[in-house]
Specification:
With about 190 residues, the chain is an alpha+beta fold. It has four helices and ten strands; from the N terminus they run βαββαβαββββαββ. It has two domains: about 1-80 and about 145-185, Rossmann fold (3-Layer(aba) Sandwich), CATH 3.40.50.150; about 85-145, N-terminal domain of TfIIb.
């Protein structure tokens, strides 16, 4: 079972599942009000979607939805990229990546800016996509709420979970790419 707010991401997930010969139910939904019944054994919330929820009330609603959806003693795994620890607080120079694809190429110009006072990280990605002699240019800006591990832990526990472990990287990850990976169990 997979849930995402973006129809494009759901389509991509379905494409990858089909290519792999796997089946899953995919639903469009918001983490703050999951469109699922209770009774799940586990929830994996990976790749920092909770950081996209800027307000504390929204984070609390998402964690309450996870609690409602899990069976008693169900497992919650939450991963949040640790932007400040990985990238630092100082303004960073833009980075440029060039990617070749069978149909053309992609140029990505990425900037990061941390506003410590507001507790927000802004990442802007400017894309230039060249395909079949045509060029498409677009920009995506992500605003993320920066919370400490203690703040996430307090919110997770307040929602009715007991944290079992906190990791700062996956096994085999290169040094300097920090995460906050919470493993928790539903209480009650």
């Amino acid at each position: 079972m997979g849930v995402d707010l973006s129809p494009a991401m759901l389509n991509e997930a379905q494409r990858r599942l089909t290519e792999a010969g796997l089946a899953a139910s995919l639903l469009r939904g918001d983490l703050r009000c999951l469109p699922l019944a209770s009774g799940f054994d586990g929830i994996f919330c990976l790749d920092s979607p909770l950081a996209l929820i800027l307000e504390d009330e929204g984070l609390a609603a998402a964690l309450a939805a996870f609690h409602r959806t899990l069976r008693p003693a169900g497992v919650l795994v939450v991963e949040v990229y640790d932007y400040v620890r990985s990238l630092g607080e100082a303004k960073r120079r833009p980075s440029v990546a060039r990617v070749r694809a069978p149909w053309g190429r992609i140029l990505v110009n990425e900037t990061h800016c941390y506003d410590q006072k507001a507790g927000q990280w802004e990442m802007t990605q400017a894309f230039t996509v060249e395909r079949g002699g045509r060029q498409e240019i677009f920009t995506i800006t992500h605003r993320l709420r920066i919370r400490t591990a203690d703040a996430y832990a307090a919110a997770i526990e307040h929602a009715g979970f007991r944290i079992q472990a906190l990791y700062d990287a996956y096994p085999g990850m290169h040094t300097g790419d920090y995460r906050m990976i919470f493993c928790a169990r539903r209480v009650g």
